[in-house]
Design goal:
The termini are far apart. This protein is an alpha+beta fold. It is built from 15 helices and 14 strands. Bound molecules: adenosine-5'-diphosphate (ADP) and magnesium ion. The site of adenosine-5'-diphosphate has 16 residues, from strand 2, strand 9 and strand 10.
């Protein structure tokens, strides 16, 4: 069903977008423990935080955040895992802080949508965002001709602002949207939808354009409508008003208007502010909240990346280790206090090999992570070399004894004494003159033979780096 405003120059189409403020159902305010109670005595529900006494700090009410997230899920919207509060600066008597704590760039809920049902069929209305903000107090002008009084009971009460796309084309669609949203909030229990108490109210943005135009016209925003009937009337009035201005050659000023329920008209309240008028900036008193994200563990991809970036593991090893939580846990226990790469090699090459041979899972390993860590420590500080370490690991598998005990009992400590290694080399060279000649004539592969012989004569305990070093010099 189309709704067109007939003009002298042709038909005009309406474009409508709603900003709905819904009070979050919660026993206490958004940033203080003050109770949220309708009908309390004036200023009975006001803490120092709500009154913005110097030095008072806001503390997020987690329940309110949860309510907003529930609502976001209810309108099929994207939940933003990181979000923060901004200060929206303006000066008004009922706003004691001098700014409203709201959300600007990173609202808790992003794009969503809602289906509305009309006699003519269903339509999907886009939702731009949902953000959380605090309500202001209330100015009372009826008590004195000279003074205004302020009731801060509502100051700091949690609100959700749910902003629609300019997707509605008729007053009925706007009404249907508002009603459907109210129903969803009531189902969710995130807002009581009480229109009379002002717990749910809409700012209605209206513009008109010639049928067939694709560009949006300049909009006016009608503030604080809390009845579907008034909303419909206000839109109809506003549309006719704008068409008349445009048809008589005028232009629409973007402004904020009020609906006079008695006269059935909208009238100027103030010219419309732009976002930059509010000097938005992140509220330094409140940290970004990503509490739900914080409860997530480090996931496999993040683990893998961290192993690569900060531990220097190869992408392959990082992938193998992070692929199962039990393996990652085991690895991290091995690497604790030890060289990350050596730990990774001994896990993936040596331990896995032995486990596979016996058909054991990592959780069934006879060598605990701490025990393997100790072995890595002995390799790291040169107590034993890699070759001996393999034998030690075999014995750890068989006997369950700790590495250090096996090394001590069997006298496997590495030989790093230069003199002892040199003596062993000299003996091997003396006994193998023919091989030395071969090597010197260009058969470089022979080098491995000498290393093997020296290792054999030292019981495999020679420090390989020192051995290589001296052997090279002796053979040159
Ligand atoms: P502000 O807070 O400055 O009003 P928002 O972007 O939060 O700005 O809200 C703008 C609202 O006005 C949205 O609901 C949007 O769909 C609607 N809107 C934007 N442009 C138009 C337009 N040309 N005609 C009608 N509604 C519009
Ligand atoms: Mg607005």
């Amino acid at each position: 069903m189309t709704y067109l405003v007939k003009g002298q120059t042709g038909d005009w189409e309406l474009v409508i977008g709603l900003e709905v403020h819904a009070q979050i159902t919660s026993n206490s305010k958004l940033f203080s423990g003050s109770p949220v109670q309708f009908g309390s005595e004036t200023n009975a529900n006001v803490s120092f935080v709500d009154a913005a006494m110097p030095g008072m700090l806001p503390v997020i009410n987690a329940h309110c955040i949860e309510q907003a997230v529930r609502t976001g899920l209810g309108i099929n919207a994207q939940i933003n895992l990181t979000s923060y509060f901004d200060r929206k600066n303006y000066f008004y008597a009922d706003l004691p802080q001098g700014y409203q704590i709201s959300q600007y760039l990173d609202p808790i809920v992003g794009k969503g949508e809602m289906i509305i049902d009309l006699p003519s069929g269903s339509r999907t209305i886009g939702i731009t965002r949902l953000h959380i903000e605090q309500d202001a107090g209330k100015s009372m002008h009826e008590h004195s001709p000279k003074y205004s009084y302020i009731d801060l009971n509502r100051a700091g009460v949690a609100l959700m602002e749910i902003v629609s796309e300019p997707d509605m084309r008729t007053p009925e669609e706007a009404a249907a949207y508002f009603k459907k949203l109210r129903t969803i909030l009531l189902y969710l229990g995130t807002c009581d939808g009480d229109l009379e108490k002002g717990n749910m109210r809409a700012d209605v943005n209206v513009s008109v354009r010639k049928v067939g135009d694709t560009k949006l016209g300049t909009r006016c925003e009608i503030k604080n409508l809390n009845s579907v009937r008034f909303m419909t009337k206000a839109i109809e009035f506003e549309a006719r008003r704008q068409v008349e201005i445009l048809e008589s050659g005028g232009s629409i000023d973007q402004e904020t208007r009020l609906f006079d329920t008695e006269k059935g008209e909208t009238r100027t309240m103030r010219s419309k502010e732009d976002a930059h008028d509010y000097r938005y900036f992140p509220d330094p008193d409140l940290l970004p909240f990503d509490s739900i994200r914080k409860t997530l563990p480090e996931l496999p991809d993040q683990k893998k990346q961290r192993y690569i970036d900060t531990l220097g593991l190869s992408p392959y090893d990082a992938g193998v280790i992070s692929s199962e939580k039990e393996i990652a846990d085991y690895y991290e226990a091995v690497a604790k206090g030890h060289d990350a790469k050596i730990a990774s090699n001994w896990l993936t090459a040596e331990l896995f090999g032995r486990l596979n041979k016996q058909g054991l899972e990592i959780t069934e390993s006879p060598v605990s992570a701490e025990a393997l860590g100790e072995l890595v420590g002995l390799i790291e500080n040169n107590t034993i070399n890699g070759k001996i370490a393999k034998e030690v690991l075999d014995k750890m598998f068989e006997t369950g004894k700790p590495a250090k005990q096996i090394v001590d009992e069997e006298g496997l400590t590495q030989v790093t004494d230069l003199g002892a290694i040199e003596k062993a080399i000299d003996e091997v060279i003396a006994a193998n003159q023919d091989k030395v000649a071969e090597y010197k004539s260009g058969k470089e592969k022979m080098f491995g033979f000498f290393v093997g012989q020296v290792m054999k004569s030292t019981g495999g305990k020679a420090n390989p780096a020192i051995l290589n070093d001296i052997l090279k010099k002796k053979l040159s």
